Amino acid sequence: MSRPIADSRPAPRTRRAWVFVTFAALLAAAFAGFVSLGVWQLQRMAWKHDLIARVDARVHAAPVPVPARAQWPAVSESADGYRHVQASGTFVPDNETRTQAVTELGAGSWSLMPLRMESGDYVLVNRGFVPTGDAAGEVPQGRVTVQGLLRISEPGGGFLRRNDPAQGRWYSRDVAAIARSHGLPADRVAPFFIDADRDHASNDWPRGGMTVVKFRDSHLSYALTWFGMALLALVAGAYLVASERRLRHDRHRHHARSGHAGTNEPE
Question: Is 90 helix (H, G, I), strand (E, B) or coil?
C-alpha cells in the first residue's frame, strides 16, 4: 500500500507572511532612500546659496590685482570664479579671436585678445560682444588697465561642437588652445581670462559687461519631490500593515465561527 506523498510547499499562511515581510522591507528601504535623497538636496541647496552669496560679493567688490604667475596653480572656479580683478599692460596687435556667443542682444561672437602685462606674462581678455555682421572698434593702443571678472578657461568647445583652431572656428573660450593658435609661450599665459567690464563712455563694439552670473537652483523642488516619494512609501507601508491586520482579523473571526458551529452539532 503506497504512502501519500507529503506536500512540501509552504502553507498559505507562511507564504503570505513572507510576502508581507518582503514588501514591508522594500517599502522601508525606499522610505529611507527617499528621505536620504531629500536631505542631500537640502544640503546641496545650502551649498548653492553659499556659493551664490560668495560670487555676488566677488562681482560687486572693488577690483583686485589679477593673480600673479606664482598663484596660477591655486586658481579655481570655486575660489576665484567671477572675482573682480584688474590688469595693466598692452594688447598684442593682430591676435584677435572670435568665439561664438548668444546673448540678450542676439547672436554674435566674443572678441578675445591677449594682454601682455607689465610682468611679461599674458592674460586673455574678452573685450566683449560683437553682433553678427558688425565690426569691432579699434583696439586701444599703448598701456591700458582692464577691469572685469576672472573666468576659468572653457576647454574643448561648446555643446556638440568642438573648437577647430585650424579653421578659426571657436565655440568656447579655451585659453590654452587660443594661446597656442597665436604662438604665445604656454608657460607665460594665465590659465584664465577676464570678462571686461563695460565702457559706458563708448557705444562701439565690442560691448563688455555682459557676463551672465546665474546659477541654477532647483534643489528645493528636488528635495520636496524626494520627500513626497518618501511620504508615498510611508502611506503604502501603512496600507500594507492595515491590510495584513484586516486579513488576520478576518481569519480569527472565521476560525471562531467554525469552532462555534462545531460545538453545536448534534451527537
Answer: strand
- The C-alpha cell of 37 is what? 535623497
Q: Is 178 exposed, middle or buried (0-12, 13-18, 19+ CB in 10 A)?
A: buried
Residue type at position 80 = D
193: β partners: 124, 151
Q: What span, in angstroms and rounded, lies between the C-alpha atoms of 117 and 111?
A: 18
Q: What does each C-alpha distance from 244 to 14, 18, 32, 51, 194 come to in angstroms? A: 13, 12, 22, 49, 67
106: number of Cβ within 10 Å: 10
The H-assigned helical ranges of 118-218 are 175-181
Summarize pLDDT for 53-108 with one digit per residue, the tens. 777 888 889 999 999 999 999 999 989 999 999 999 999 988 999 999 999 899 99
pLDDT digits over 210-267, tens only?
898 877 888 889 999 999 999 999 898 888 888 878 877 767 776 666 665 555 555 4
Contact (Cβ atoms closer than 8 angstroms) between residue 96 and residue 109: no
Whole-number Å distance between alpha carbons of 115 and 146? 9
Amino acid symbol at 162:
R
